[in-house]
Amino acid sequence: MDKIPTMGSGKPTYAVKTVISVLLEEVALTRALLDDNSTAHIGNAIVCLSTRLIGSDLTIEQLKTMLPGMFLTTFAFSYTFDIANQTFSVEEDTINKPNRPIPSGRLSINGAYMRWLLSWAISLAVIGLTVNLKAASMLLQWKVWISLFYVWPKFQNWVARNLFTAVGATIQLRLLDAVLIKTIPSFRADSSLMWLLFTWLVWTIHVQEFHDTEGDERVGRQTLPLIVGRRGQFPLRLMTAIIIGGTGVSSVVLAQIWRAPNPAMLCLGLAHLLFMVNVAVRLVVLPFKEADKITYKYYYILATYSLLLFRQHTERLGSIGGDVIELG
């Protein structure tokens, strides 16, 4: 007769094994929920943090102290969006993203509702207790903003969709600022970075809509590519390409990167220009679903991050619209 393992035997009991199995499955499920937007959310956090810290005197000890808060806020920001988005967009995901947990059958709709409610309640308390009340208030604003677009009343027009992402990105930036303030009480956020990010996304974030037109049309979303119709697709792509490419060219011209005081600044400017032009060219010459998906998920996001980094470096060096000033 087999012996039932006990806690004193040094072997995990059946109950412990079950708990571990459930936790591992939940971790895998969470990873699947966050997968589609992880590049944007994590990348945005890293770039926004790095741009904020340019020229700062942050110590290694302060960085170590700050990292747990950065991880928690980024995770809470991502999970808050993805669980609501996927819980209330099942029909669209069935067409556009059938491998997501709910349409693939990995997560039931009741399970999604339960995780949505629990996570939204718990995350506020966790962030408020571990970071500060300002971070919790920013996370609450993010939840309200998500609710307006995905829960009720579900604003669907293209202007609202562009605003959703633009405002969401600035909320994440301010959420990270709250963590910085906790670590460095003297830190004062520069609002110009927030407005640059907001303006850029308002004018260009519809790049993300090109590869989702089929599902968006079925659920009645009024995205810009659907509004202009098939005949208007190429002019829209061309206009967007001009805005993106023009932003890259004007950035390096205004910054006068050929007069940069060090090679690193020149390389950053050229990389920024390359990313921008690459997105512009891909939008026009590769008007296909899979190509559009790659353009948005990788090249457009890289272009956005290079824009923020380049702008912050040039402002620090005092080279926007004037002579380059090398800092001592």
From TrEMBL:
<feature type="transmembrane region" description="Helical">
    <location>
        <begin position="116"/>
        <end position="142"/>
    </location>
</feature>
<protein>
    <submittedName>
        <fullName>UbiA prenyltransferase family-domain-containing protein</fullName>
    </submittedName>
</protein>
<keyword id="KW-0472">Membrane</keyword>
<feature type="transmembrane region" description="Helical">
    <location>
        <begin position="265"/>
        <end position="288"/>
    </location>
</feature>
<feature type="transmembrane region" description="Helical">
    <location>
        <begin position="238"/>
        <end position="258"/>
    </location>
</feature>
<dbReference type="Pfam" id="PF01040">
    <property type="entry name" value="UbiA"/>
</dbReference>
<dbReference type="InterPro" id="IPR000537">
    <property type="entry name" value="UbiA_prenyltransferase"/>
</dbReference>
<keyword id="KW-0812">Transmembrane</keyword>
<dbReference type="GO" id="GO:0016765">
    <property type="term" value="F:transferase activity, transferring alkyl or aryl (other than methyl) groups"/>
</dbReference>
<keyword id="KW-0808">Transferase</keyword>
<keyword id="KW-1133">Transmembrane helix</keyword>
<dbReference type="InterPro" id="IPR050475">
    <property type="entry name" value="Prenyltransferase_related"/>
</dbReference>
<dbReference type="GO" id="GO:0016020">
    <property type="term" value="C:membrane"/>
</dbReference>
<dbReference type="InterPro" id="IPR044878">
    <property type="entry name" value="UbiA_sf"/>
</dbReference>
